[in-house]
Write a structure and sequence with these properties.
This protein is mostly helical and 352 residues long. The chain has 16 helices and 2 strands. A two-stranded antiparallel ribbon has the order 1-2. The N and C termini lie far apart (60 Å).
């Protein structure tokens, strides 16, 4: 009996060792994520982001209110959206998780889960795309490296660092769901998957709607998805079918949102909050909308300032902005430009 247990353990050890040797960069990625997660978990520390979605303050009540939020009986504290019902998937996470760990820790774990899942699924997505477009069999062995490089650039760019620094909940969720949605789209367009896997993908797409609490994220993502469908012109009917399925899955919040927008758009345009946000975020000079900012994925809130309540002193929201703005040339800036250079080259190769 002892001999069989030892042999089984050795076989598992060999299998694990072989798997690590086959995908060394994937395990380097896992190690990086473990280090980041371990360094960012803090005891008794509550997260309050740019928009206040502190649902953990009253989980049970907020879950019911979120579920019925289409009827707008309640408006969440700080919620600027017209699609609050999409937050129900995050609320269910709190409903279950509150019996496992403290609520303040649940908030931290949510952000770290979004980071970890986003990185791992980007690794998977990049490897899948490379496998599909690669015509040189000798390069197949580098799929692991391709996925690793893509996931590293997905994390270490100004936009991602800013989103997790503030943090802004819906964009944190987008970091996680974006590669999931794109991966599922490509799989459903290019392959015939079984019924069980199709149902799993539909559930993942449904849960991924959590990021659409700000509907503009859905609009910009739809632009990407339409381009993906058009790029598969030989499978155009299938692509359109997948796109319609995606819209149907999101109809539970889309239809109420469209109805609300049609009925209330005139009132919203006159609201003082709306006017103030437009002035603060959009009414900027030409340099604010320069190609450089777009290429480097610099978000509009990256260089925003705030007045410290105790001293009245003006400070930057993001701690790295002053270093970026004052340095005319630095090694960090070279690395930042490496990312757009690579994604432009990659786009050209995909078209070619």
């Amino acid at each position: 009996m002892d001999i069989k247990i030892k042999m089984g353990f050795r076989n598992k050890l060999r299998h694990t060792k072989r798997y690590i040797l086959d995908k060394p960069y994937f395990f380097v990625l896992i190690l990086i994520l473990l280090i980041i997660s371990a360094l960012n978990i803090k005891q008794g520390y509550a997260l309050l982001g740019w928009d206040n979605y502190s649902s953990f303050l009253n989980v049970n009540s907020n879950t019911i209110r979120t579920f019925f939020s289409t009827w707008r009986e309640y408006r969440g504290l700080g919620v600027p959206s017209d699609a609050e019902v999409t937050d129900i998937w995050r609320m269910l996470y709190y409903v279950i998780g509150q019996h496992i760990m403290p609520n303040y820790l649940l908030e931290q774990v949510y952000y770290l889960l979004a980071l970890n899942i986003g990185m791992i699924t980007m690794y998977k997505l990049a490897g899948y795309i490379f496998t599909k477009i690669n015509k040189n069999e000798s390069l197949t062995q580098h799929v692991d490296l391709i996925g690793f490089v893509a996931s590293i650039f997905y994390l270490f760019n100004i936009n991602t660092l800013s989103v997790f620094s503030f943090p802004i909940l819906m964009f944190v969720s987008r970091f996680c769901t974006f590669p999931i949605i794109i991966y599922i789209f490509l799989r459903l367009i290019n392959e015939s998957v079984g019924v069980r896997k199709t149902l799993l993908y539909m559930i993942l797409l449904l849960v991924s709607s959590v990021t659409f609490i700000v509907p503009t994220i859905f609009i910009t993502l739809m632009m990407v998805l339409v381009l993906i469908v058009l790029s598969h012109w030989r499978k155009l009917k299938r692509g359109i079918g997948v796109l319609l399925l995606f819209i149907l899955i999101n109809s539970y919040w889309l239809f109420p949102f469209v109805n609300y927008t049609i009925q209330k758009s005139d009132d919203v345009a006159l609201a003082s909050t709306f006017v103030r946000i437009n002035e603060d975020l959009l009414n900027r000079n030409e340099s604010y909308y320069s190609p450089t900012r777009s290429l480097l994925l610099i978000p509009q809130f990256y260089d925003m300032r705030y007045a410290e309540s105790s001293t009245g002193q003006e400070k930057m929201f993001h701690p790295l902005f002053i270093r970026y703005a004052t340095a005319s040339f630095s090694f960090e800036k070279v690395l930042l430009w490496l990312f757009p250079a690579l994604y432009i080259i990659g786009s050209g190769l995909l078209i070619y």
